[in-house]
Specification:
- The protein contains 30 helices and 18 strands.
- It is of the alpha/beta class and 698 residues long.
- The protein folds into 3 domains: 264 residues, 2-enoyl-CoA Hydratase, Chain A, domain 1 (Alpha-Beta Complex), CATH 3.90.226.10; 187 residues, Rossmann fold, CATH 3.40.50; 215 residues, N-(1-d-carboxylethyl)-l-norvaline Dehydrogenase, domain 2 (Orthogonal Bundle).
- The strands form 4 sheets. The chain has an 8-stranded mixed beta sheet, sandwiched between helices. A 6-stranded mixed beta sheet has the order 1-2-3-4-5-8, sandwiched between helices.
- Strand 9, helix 13 and strand 10 form a beta-alpha-beta unit.
- Helix 2 runs parallel beside helix 3, helix 5 runs antiparallel to helix 9 and helix 20 packs across helix 25.
């Protein structure tokens, strides 16, 4: 069955592209489009061609099945050029999400009508490439250089009204009847005497060379900081800038040359891995049979940083929220914080005042636990203490409906133990949000021993409603992310005690592409949190474990990071960003002397090798214990929750890219110094012996 069909309606030809489920531009679509266009171009009776789709969306970009493979001819760019060159009016009738190649096809048409639900965009940058079918040349001609680059550098989706105002589309239809809308619009264009209007010949939006030059200076300055380690954003800017100085065919040729350079970039491999990993993370066994319960009303226990963040994430998802706090003062503090956040969103034009009021109407707070009796789901977000959490769950067990799902936001604690105080542990689950919970995308869904499939399915459904990236985790101390974090933190403290500067370590990690250095993260989260964890674990620490006390000395002085204006770095008004606390090096030297260590220098490479080795070491153990179902889940956790550069794919993908044999050799070398901490994981040894990689386990 052909994915591209056409029919003649008097003087109008209607092309319908139907390639479910997402109407991707596969090889079959490209072949069908080209053959159809060539056939119709010869029919002199036809005055206009309408390109549309009966599916849920107009063409929605490249076929993900072709990612990473050689693209079969014809290439989309040639098809777009062919469409634009037709001597008949070509109308693109849009609906849904014409993204990437879909928008490039639409821009090669002469006129564009869009259903009200339409959102357009060129998100190729998220895959480490640039729009390679004329997108970098046609979009600036429609909406101007500044907006075009903003769309291409962020990958943002632009709604129909904004696209109309910018000039990307010409008309917004009154309804979503995309076929009828396209035909009626084409008839009107013919009746009113309109002619073909190639986008390549539209010069109005690119005529002010001085304004464009000034814009490009600012954009390049921002990009040099924001996209410091990335290749494709700079290639996009280069394609636009150079294209404006060339005739259109030359500009298209230059775009394709830069597109090929992006294809060859190793960053593309990492970004495509991330793309697929974030779509594979919902392939968990519980979702085969589990049925989510309908969520309308939820309760949040605790109004601190996590409680308010989770509340806002729920309200943004359209859920009715009741927050429980200890007293009226705490309630007012939480309300003030939530209100201030939405006021800021109004000020930044993310929402309007009416939307703010509507969202706030879904929130209430009380000290009375009995108000939770009609809730569908309750999320506990109190202090990280097992006794306190078990006390909360005991209360909920007495008050809540028997089918109410009870979730804990614990970062480390044993969810199985928390579930023991509930009559029906099948409805207990861990929902580990990341701070700030209303912004951070990652959600670790922690499945306990007795958690039911329906409870797991409901948790994944909640993640979808909240627009989170969910990852399933089993129960262990710290789950996936914080357990691996603990490993490389300890490894880092070993390095620091051996002579490395904390500030040198952070610089290496940032230069690698991470959003923040390790000690920056500690200061941001609050050093007291890790201190509490270390004290909790102290009774269980083996006498032969190497324990570095540098972090304890810092905390004993009350230096918890940003919250105290002092940690590893200094904070406050007038203090330059990333100003080291000079007393940190003094503490490090004192501790080295106390334990009898002569400090040595560490190169950038040595620091990076240990950082990666520690993550891969613990990641491998997590896989062996089935805490994580597959290596790509670990990658998703770190690229979405811990600032690991997405263009490197994640720690497990990066290990594949540099070679597992290299990682294993490093771990074997470190194990000679400390066999308790660095004993080579069997799974890693087996993979190297079998000449396999982590990707083989996905």
């Amino acid at each position: 069955m052909s994915v591209v069909k056409h029919r003649i309606l008097d003087e109008i030809a209607l092309i319908e592209v139907s390639n479910p489920p997402v109407n991707a531009i596969s090889a079959a679509v490209r072949i069908g489009l080209l053959e159809t266009i060539e056939e119709l171009s010869l029919d002199e009776k036809i005055l206009a061609i309408v390109i549309t789709a009966p599916e849920r969306t107009f063409l929605a970009g490249a076929d993900i099945k072709e990612f990473g493979k050689k693209i079969d001819a014809p290439i989309l760019g040639n098809i777009c050029d062919k469409i634009e060159s037709l001597n008949k009016i070509v109308v693109a009738s849009l609906h849904g999400t014409p993204l990437g190649g879909g928008l490039e096809v639409a821009m090669s048409a002469h006129y564009r009508i869009a259903a009200p639900n339409t959102k357009v965009g060129l998100p190729e940058v998220l895959l480490g490439i640039l729009p390679g079918a004329g997108g970098t040349q046609r979009l600036p001609r429609l909406c101007g250089v500044s907006m075009a680059l903003d769309m291409m550098l962020t990958g943002k989706h632009v709604p129909a009204k904004k696209a109309l105002d910018a000039g990307i589309i010409d008309v917004i239809a009154k309804n979503n009847s995309t076929i009828d809308n396209g035909i009626e619009y084409a008839k009107k264009l013919i009746k009113d005497g309109f002619k073909p209007r190639p986008t390549s010949q539209m010069e109005n939006k690119i005529s002010d060379t001085q304004e464009i030059s000034n814009s490009l200076i600012k954009i390049k300055e921002t990009a040099s900081k924001k996209y410091k380690n990335l290749f494709s954003p700079h290639a996009i800017i280069k394609s636009v800038e150079e294209g404006l100085k060339l005739n259109f065919p030359e500009a298209i040729s230059n775009e394709r040359k830069l597109f090929e350079e992006c294809i060859q970039s190793p960053q593309r491999q990492g970004l495509i891995h991330s793309f697929f990993a974030e779509r594979a993370n919902t392939k968990v066994p519980e979702l085969k049979d589990g049925k989510p319960i309908e969520l309308k009303k939820i309760g949040i226990i605790g109004g601190g940083t996590m409680g308010t963040g989770i509340s806002m994430a729920a309200m943004n998802a359209g859920l009715d929220v009741i927050m429980i706090e200890q007293n009226d003062e705490a309630i007012e503090k939480a309300k003030t914080k939530i209100n201030a956040t939405y006021d800021r969103n109004v000020k930044l034009n993310r929402i309007n005042n009416e939307q703010k009021l509507e969202i706030m109407s879904m929130f209430s707070a009380t000290t009375d636990f009995n108000e939770l009796k009609d809730r569908d789901l309750i999320i506990e977000a109190v202090f990280e203490n097992m006794d306190i959490k078990k006390e909360v769950f005991s209360k909920l067990n007495q008050i809540c409906r028997k089918n109410c799902i009870l979730a804990t936001n614990t970062s480390y604690l044993n969810v199985n133990e928390i579930a023991t105080v509930v009559d029906d542990p099948s409805r207990v689950i861990g929902l580990h949000f990341f701070s700030p919970a209303n912004i951070m995308k990652l959600l670790e869904i922690v499945v306990a021993e007795k958690t039911s499939t329906d409870t797991v399915a409901t948790a994944f459904d909640l993640a979808k409603k909240m627009r989170k990236v969910p990852v399933r985790s089993g129960v262990c101390d710290g789950f996936i992310g914080n357990r691996i974090l603990s490993k490389y933190l300890v490894s880092t403290y070993h390095m620091v005690e051996d002579g490395a500067s904390p500030f040198h370590v952070d610089k290496v990690i940032r230069d690698f592409g991470c959003a923040m250095g390790i000690f920056q993260v500690i200061d941001l989260a609050g050093g007291d949190i890790g201190w509490a964890t270390r004290k909790r674990k102290a009774p269980f620490r083996h006498k032969d474990d190497r324990y570095v006390e540098i972090a304890d000395r810092v905390c004993e002085r009350g230096w918890f990071g940003q919250k105290t204006s002092k940690g590893y770095y200094l904070y406050g008004e007038g203090v330059e960003f990333l100003t080291p606390n000079p007393e940190i090096e003094i503490i490090c030297n004192e501790e080295r002397k106390r334990v009898g260590i002569t400090p040595k220098n560490f190169s950038d490479q040595e620091i990076l090798d240990r950082y990666i080795a520690a993550m891969v070491y613990e990641g491998t153990k997590i896989l062996s214990e089935q805490i994580a179902l597959k290596p790509s889940d670990i990658d998703v956790v770190f690229t979405n929750g811990y600032g690991f550069p997405k263009w490197r794919g994640g720690p497990m993908k990066y290990a594949d890219m540099i070679g597992l044999d290299k990682i294993l050799k490093n771990i074997q070398k470190y194990s000679e110094e400390d066999p308790r901490f660095w004993s080579p994981p069997k799974l890693l040894e087996d993979l190297v012996k079998q000449n396999k990689n982590f990707d083989s386990l996905n």
